Amino acid sequence: MKTLTTTDELRAFCEEAANYPYVTVDTEFLRERTYYSKLCLIQIAFLGDGKTDAVLVDPLSSDLSLEPLYELFRNEDVVKVFHAARQDLEIFWVDASVFPKPLFDTQVAAMVCGFGEQVGYETLVRKICKQGLDKTSRFTDWSRRPLSDAQKTYALADVTHLRQIYEHLRKELDKTGRSHWVAEELQVLTDPATYDIQPREAWRRVKTRTNSGKFLAVVRELAAFREEYAQTNNVPRNRVYKDDALVELASTKPRTPSDLGGSRLLLREARKGAIAEGILKAVERGVNCPQEDMPQADRSREKMQINGALADLLRVLLKAKTETAGVAAKLIAPSADLDAIAAGERDVPALKGWRHEVFGSDALRLCNGEIALAAKGQLVKVVDL
Predict the structure, then answer these.
(1) What span, in angstroms and rounded, lies between the C-alpha atoms of 198 and 195?
(2) Stretch 335-353: mean pLDDT, rounded?
């Protein structure tokens, strides 16, 4: 279990890895006390079964730069294989504005290959590799040094088994002709916009019971200040103030520091200093927001004229199609998409790309009265009209 702690060691490994068709990669990080993930460990492996084909990389070492790894990420002759890659990719994008290309995510591929929705790595190891994983080091503080042999073994298993999983899924995709399905799903993971958090849009994640523009204007300003403060000081947004406290502040609209003292939900640290000052200024901006600049809640769903019977038929069609294709129904069309289609909406993900092939084409034909559904035993059949 070799741990690389210098740039020269990492460069030598990456240069050797570049001779292989793919590498498997995983990371260990901490995010409980920071806004941005703190990268603590990187695991990399290439094809083989010896002691030199899988290593740990210590990004906390003062003698190590990750640039050789980023060079490998930019090498489009080598596929970079991850499992559930989103948080890993965010780390590399924030650190160096680089995405691993070409990318392969075994979680996405497993969903396409019929392993269910958001299947876990442990499940794939058990089903494909026919092995179990030692979970005793799952809750390790990866920032502490030295790492024990048990921790290193646990970490390396995240990339050594991944080789067999990748090759199995790759063969399945080639056999079924579904590689382009995975490619479509991965486009969002390598889109910089996926990781670009705009403070002025943060209010949309806050659940409120009122859609008043005046109220939402204060919510928007409070959410924007919280996001900016959390980013600047690299602290979790909930350490600034939680959503329930934000909604309370938007309701009470404090104007003075003493008003903050009456909050039931605001953390003590937020009632003074820079956070308190930011809250009061945010409330003032929200209260004084011009009518034309007030945010509007999304009421599009409320305005939908959903054909309930058609929505039910679309659910039956989706179930039939996904059972035939061996794909999780939610991967193709969540319930909201089906209702939207039944209400006449056509700018819906379920009607685009590979989803159109599996479900969307017949969904439109069903809406247009061109097909019917018939039950035969346990099966539902599509009947042309």
Answers:
(1) 9
(2) 94
